[in-house]
Write a structure and sequence with these properties.
Strand order of the largest sheet: 2-1-5-6-7-4-3
CATH class: Mainly Beta
Helix content: under 10%
Distance between the termini: 20 Å
Largest sheet: 7 strands, antiparallel
CATH topology: Thrombin, subunit H
CATH architecture: Beta Barrel
Number of strands: 7
Order of helices and strands: HEEEEEEE
Oligomer: single chain
């Protein structure tokens, strides 16, 4: 039974504890977007994007972007981190109906599992 409770997310839990929000500033996109980081996706951390957002025209699964992360500790500086788009999933029926859940992964922050 204990094995059923193992963390199965692709992101370490410390990511959600360390960062509050993330900013997307993509060269081709005329706008900058800042989103609160959510820990609701089965794949790890994510942001919620409105279905009519222009941002969706500029991101694709497996893109690696240099995103700006705002920390939960106001005394610590913002961080720019290479981030992989893991999934872009529309919520048609759930709590976030009509929104896209954009799953994020920070490869350089991931650590190999302990043996």
């Amino acid at each position: 039974m204990k094995d059923d409770l193992k963390e199965r997310r692709s992101e370490p839990r410390s990511i959600i504890d360390r960062y509050y929000s993330v900013e997307f500033s993509i060269r081709e996109c005329p706008f900058t977007y800042q989103f609160k980081i959510w820990d609701i996706s089965q794949k790890g951390i994510c942001v919620l994007v409105k279905e009519d957002s222009e941002l969706l025209n500029y991101i694709r699964v497996d893109d690696i972007l240099d995103l700006k992360y705002y920390t939960t500790d106001s005394m610590k500086p913002i961080e720019f981190l290479n981030t992989k788009i893991r999934h872009i999933t529309k919520d048609d029926t759930g709590r976030f109906k009509g929104l896209y859940l954009v799953g994020l992964s920070i490869p350089e922050k991931e650590k190999p599992p302990k043996k």
